[in-house]
Amino acid sequence: MTSRRAAPEDRLRLLRMRAQRLAGRRPREVAEVVRAVGGLQAQDTPASRLAVRARSGGLDQAAVRRACDQERSVVRTWVMRGTLHMVAAEDAGWLVGLLGPGFAAGDRRRRLQLGLEDRLCERALEVLPAVLADGPLSRAELVRGLAAKGVRIEPEGQAPAHLVGLAAMRGLVCRGPDLDGDQASYVLLESWAGAGRAMGPEDALAELARRYLGGHGPSGPEDLAAWSGLALGRARRAFELAAGDLREVELGGRRLWALAGGPAARSRSAGPVVRLLGRFDDYLLGWRDRDLILDPAFARRIQAGGGWIHPALVVDGRVAGTWRARRAGGRLEVAVEPFGGQLPRGAGPALEREAADLGRFLGTEAVLDVDGG
User: Fold this and answer.
1) Measured between alpha carbons, how far is residue 191 from residues 120, 263, 332, 346 in Å?
2) I want to staple 169 with a disulfide (CB 3.0 to 4.6 A). Which of 23, 38, 104, 105 is the partner?
3) Architecture of the domain defined by 2-20+199-259
C-alpha cells in the first residue's frame, strides 16, 4: 500500500521540480528564470541571487546584479504576501496593482502604531516623486529628503521601512540598484521599470493563476492563496478565470491543476537531481504546506521559528539536509549536514557538481564537506 501512494507523490515532486526549473531545461537569462516561476523572494539579496543560480544554466552573480541594477530586466518590489520579490520588469506594474492595495490596507494598523498617521502618509506619497526625482536614494537619504519637504518621520526603528512599503504597494516606488554592501536604494517604479502592462482586475487575477501554475503546478487554489497572500475565495476565482488555459491533474486522489501544454512527468534522469537552495527559497515557500517535500520530523531544521527559512539540500524533490558556506583561505567551504547523518543513495557525485557550480557562480573554488559523509 505504501508503494502505491509513493508513485503519485514522486510524480508530483518531479512535475513541481520541473515547473520550478530545478530539473529539466534551465533558463540562461535572469529575466527568463524570474518570469518562469512568477517571482522569487528577495528580502535577502544574496539569497535571491542563489535562487536564480539554482534555476539557471551558466549565469553568475554578476549577471544577476546587472539584471537588477543596470539592465532593469527584473525589478524588486513588494508583491506576493506583501514581501519583497524579484519579478520580471514588465510584470511589476500589474502585480502591484492587483496585490498592493490589500496588503497596504492590512498594514495600516502597524503604521498607526509607528506614528505613521494617514494624513502624514498621504503627504509623504505626494512629495516622494520630487524627493526621488534625481535618482536612487538610500532609505536614510529618502527620510532626509522627506524632512526637507516638511514631512518628518522617526528615522530610527521600523517607520521608514513601513512607509517605503506603503509607497511600493501603492505603485509609486520600488528598489533600485544595490549600493555598497548590498544596501538598498529606492527609485520611482515607473521611471525605473517603465509603464508595464495595463490589466483590469480580473485579467490580472487570471494572469496570476497562469504565472503561478507555470512555476508551481500542479497545484490547487489553496496553494496559490498561500504563495500570493490572496484570500482563498479570490484564489479560487483566479483559477476559474484562467480555466481555459488549465488542465486538471489527479494524483493520489488529489485534484490539482497545471497549465495546459505544460511539462509532463518524464522518467527520472540517470542519477539523482541535487540542488543547494539558499535561504527563503521559493521551493520551500511556494505551496500551502511542505509535507510533500519535507519530512515533518526534520521541519524545525529548516524553519525553527520566526519566519527564517534555512538553506536546504534537495535530492529528487525531497529536502534531505541543510548546508552553509563560508569563505576561507581564498576558497568557498560548503558544509552539508544530511538528515539522519547520511546522504541519499547515489547523491554524492551530483552534490559535488552542485557545490562546484555554487563556487563558479560566486567566482571562487568550492570545497565540499559532508557531515558524516
Assistant:
1) 24, 37, 38, 50
2) 104
3) Orthogonal Bundle (1.10)
Task: State how far the Cα of 190 lies from the Cα of 172, in Å rounded to an integer.
Answer: 7
Question: Residue ranges of the chain with pLDDT lower than 50?
Answer: 1-6
Residue 7 is predicted with a pLDDT of 74
Measure the CA–CA gap between 21 and 324, rounded to whole angstroms.
Answer: 22
Reduced to 3 states (helix: H, G, I; strand: E, B; else coil), residue 153 is: coil
Q: What are the residues facing 74 on neighbouring strands?
A: 88
3-state secondary structure of 174: strand
Q: Which residue has the cell 505544460?
A: 262
Burial of 199 (0-12, 13-18, 19+ CB in 10 A): middle
For every residue of 8-56, which 3-state class applies, written as one string? HHHHHHHHHHHHCCCCCCCCCCHHHHHHHHCCEECCCHHHHHHHHHHCC
The C-alpha torsion from 19 through 20 and 21 to 27, rounded to 10°, is 100
59 touches 52 (CB < 8 A): yes
pLDDT > 90 in the chain, percent: 90
Asked if 78 and 168 touch (Cβ cutoff 8 Å), the reply is yes
Q: Provide the pLDDT for residue 217.
A: 97
Among 304, 324, 326, residue whose Cα is nearest residue 313: 324
Cβ neighbours of residue 30 closer than 8 Å, sequence gap 6 or more: 52, 56, 59, 63, 64, 66, 67, 68, 73, 74
pLDDT confidence of residue 4: 40
User: Cell 507523490 belongs to which residue?
Assistant: 9
**Do 247 and 258 contact (CB within 8 A), yes or no?**
yes
Cβ–Cβ under 8 Å, residues 238 and 230: yes
For 125, the grid coordinates are 506619497
End-to-end CA distance of the chain: 32
Rounded to 5 degrees, φ, ψ at 280 are 60, 30
Q: Which of 126, 94, 123, 121 lies closest to 107 in space, CA to CA?
A: 121
